[in-house]
Amino acid sequence: MIETQSVNNAKSETNINWAIIAPGNIAKKFATALQGVNGATLYSVASRDVNRAQAFANQYGFETVATDYDALIAEPKVDVIYIASPHTFHTQQSIACLTAAKPVLCEKPMSINAKQAKSVFAAAKTNNTFYMEAVWTRFMPMLAKVREIIDSGRIGDIQTAQASFGIDVPFSLQHRLYDPKLAGGALLDVGIYTITFAQWLMQTPPQQITAAAQLGTTGVDERTAVILRYPEGQLLTLNSSINSKSNHEAWIFGSKGRIKMSAFWQCQEIALQLDGEHETIKIPHRINGYEGEIEEVNRCLRAGKIESDVFPWSDSLTVMEIMDEARRQIGLRYAGQD
User: Fold this and answer.
1) How many Å apart are CA 224 and CA 330, to the nearest integer?
2) DSSP state at residue 266
3) Distance between the two ends of the chain, CA-based, in angstroms?
4) pTM score, two decimals?
5) Phi and psi for 74 in degrees, rounded to 5?
6) Most buried residue among 26, 68, 138, 285 by CB atoms closer than 10 A?
7) Torsion sign, CA atoms 243, 247, 250, 254
8) Cα–Cα distances in angstroms (integers) from residue 36 to residues 21, 83, 132, 288, in the given order
């Protein structure tokens, strides 16, 4: 259990100035959501290429452009920084921000192993500064609805579940997903969604972890399967891939019924199937799905928190520990990283 405390300088109801490190594709979606969130100001952006940062700022309406990452972190008017760089930079950049007492929302995965994750949490606690991993799925209204159905007992006791997230990315030595130096492969990029789903569903670490994978010519996992066993015998089967597209579904099977979550990682529709009863429930994104995590960060900053109680550090750490064990079993190492 990680103990945290509240910050003393909680934000008021005034707008919160957001900044972005690394304006790539994921940052574009994030900036689009920022534009529609009340109380969020698109303040500054920084890139290794200043011209790229300026183009991004012009496109999405950021007020300023920082000359580099250090300048962005040092900017007094920046209230919180969203880190959208490749996986292997997350730990270093998060700690740099936290050391400067700048709150952080870091794109998943927050680090490439549990040791690094713990160092980030230690920095947040030492500097009494907010930190959260950006797993947008955790803040979608549909997950709250599914939890409500489960807690109501309508599908009975959870017995098993499964989730699949496979994408088909053409092989290229230049693509980050096939580069072990950038912690490429299925597990950290899309497998993390299936494992995060499992942790959200079960709300406790698994008792047993079993993993198998197909490693490609560059050494990254191109396909990975993980089975998690829990103390009361529940079994969760999780599949991920970067070279074969799957249905992106998650199923939760209970003793009285089941729930199908379509495109579970950005879920807007579920099918509730009980004996003699079938119901489809739809809850569309208000913007594009990223708004939930932004609003949660704003809420936490205004409340003076350094950790979200909706998505606590312990959940991120459990997911990272599961992935560490899976990597150990399949023999996956990231070049020069661990």
Assistant:
1) 9
2) G
3) 25
4) 0.94
5) -80, -10
6) 138
7) negative
8) 20, 19, 21, 10
Size (the chain), residues: 338
**pLDDT for position 275:** 87
Q: In what order do the strands lie in the sheet with 235-241?
A: 208-215, 221-229, 235-241, 158-166, 250-254, 257-262, 269-274, 277-282
Q: Which residue in 117, 128, 112, 109 sits closest to 4, CA to CA?
A: 128
13-69 pLDDT, tens per residue? Answer: 689 999 999 999 999 999 999 999 999 999 999 999 999 999 999 999 999 999 999
What would the DSSP string read from start to end of 73-137?
HH-TT--EEEE-S-GGGHHHHHHHHHHTT--EEEESSS-SSHHHHHHHHHHHHHTT--EEEE-GG
- Please write the tens of the pLDDT for every residue from 81-102: 999 999 999 999 999 999 999 9
Residue with the two structure tokens 């947040």: 124
User: Which tokens is 192 given?
Assistant: 């993390």
CA 142 to chain CA centroid, nearest Å: 16
